Amino acid sequence: MESKVWHIQSNQLDSATTVHAIEEVSEALRAGEVIGMPTETVYGLAADATNDAAIDKVFKAKGRPSDNPLIIHIHDTQQLDLFVTQIPDKAGALMEAFWPGPISFVLPLKHGVLSERATVGLDTVAVRMPSHPVARAILQTVDIPIAAPSANTSGTPSPTEASHVQADLTNKVFGIIESDASEVGLESTVLDCTTFPYRILRPGSITKTQIEAVLNEVIQTETNDSDTPASPGMKYKHYAPRQRVHVVENWVAIDVPPDVGVIAPESMRQYINEDVLFVRLCESETDYDEAGRNLYRVLREMDQMDVEAIYIHGFNQQDQSAALNNRIYRAAGKTIIEG
Ligand code: TXA
Ligand code: MG
After folding, report:
1. Residue 41 CA: which ligand 1 atom is closest?
2. Burial class, 146, CB count within 10 angstroms (exposed 0-12 / middle 13-18 / buried 19+)
3. How far is C-alpha 261 from the geometric centre of its chain's CA atoms?
């Protein structure tokens, strides 16, 4: 199958070509095809969440374990009535505060509408309303719940540019939308709203403190150390490039071997030998947003380089760095060089 390609930029949604492209994409989704689509977090692999055959294609294209549920994407909270038994009050307040945007809520599933292959037989469902203008236009036009995992091969870093989707999935999916690079660069926060207190299953750019400020109460964070994580996806080794990745928490104290590639803030370059391959992640040690936006692209770039191992900067643990550090430490499989 040769993948179709559409070019749809966020700032050209009104052009006739774009309107036509969005119609074509929506038609294909209704017909059960799967399509790589931009969102503000990472590119997603979109499919009709009510169609078993379409969902099967998603799992197959990604090589995704069949017990890992998909996030369902909507454009209007009214769509929730179709497949959620009830929206807890406090979850409603969070939707008002953060949707459309980079947070997914795990809610009680109403069986019968969504493909059970997408929800993998659970009694809950994760839902997100993305803010990316192209994603929104597609979700509005197609007007059915759309399942969309990250549009990468399972186990590779999530795609933040159309070229990453091409690299992993070209000719394995019906089509790919080429659009701008993802603004956030890390996957959405996943918040379980089916147990009290609410629990962050996957940290994202909407932080624990932001959520607590809306709720006026303290929430929990999944530690990921148990064998049966609440978010099935977290048990798989993720975000990992080919080479061994080590996190470095103190550059001043270590000597980087010459066959290693370094990923770090520009401000750390002064501590690293000039003959070592250095890839800039962001400007300073507190530029968490910039680092989050660049992380997966840089991991992919490093993966192409001829280095034996990767040393990557571990950021200070802060509310705003939780998502970034989570992905960095997971890419490393917890190998830490403390220096
Ligand atoms: O930002 C995002 O969320 C992106 C874009 C495309 O929207 N999507 C994404 O999907 O990251 P995916 O499939 O790569 O990650 C979904 C995560 C997995 O860790 C999965 O286990 C978890 O959400 N998840 C899905 N449904 C769940 C449920 N009912 N309960 C707990 N965790 C769930
Ligand atoms: Mg993923």
Report:
1. 1
2. buried
3. 25
SS3 (DSSP) at 202: strand
State pLDDT tens for residues 128-179. 999 999 999 999 999 999 999 999 999 889 999 999 999 999 999 999 999 9
Where residue 155 falls (left for φ over 0; alpha for ψ -120 to 50; beta otherwise) is left
Report the distance separating Cα 237 and Cα 7, nearest Å. Answer: 32
**Residues bordering ligand 2, an ion, CB closer than 5 Å:** 150
Tens digit of each residue's pLDDT (9 = 90 or more) over 230-270: 666 655 556 667 788 999 999 998 999 999 999 999 999 99
* Strands in the chain per DSSP E: 4-7, 35-37, 44-48, 71-73, 103-108, 124-128, 146-147, 175-178, 189-192, 199-202, 220-221, 244-248, 260-264, 277-280, 309-313, 336-337
Q: Return the ligand 1 atom nearest residue 151 CA.
A: 6
Using the 8-state DSSP alphabet, how is residue 183 labeled? Answer: S
Alpha-carbon span 161 to 293, nearest angstrom? 11
Task: Ligand 1 pocket test: pick from 84, 150, 176 the residue with the most ligand atoms within 8 Å of its Cβ.
Answer: 150
Residue 211 corresponds to which amino acid?
A: I
The ligand 1 atom nearest the CA atom of 102: 1
Q: Which residues pair with 48 in a beta bridge?
A: 146
pTM summary value? 0.95
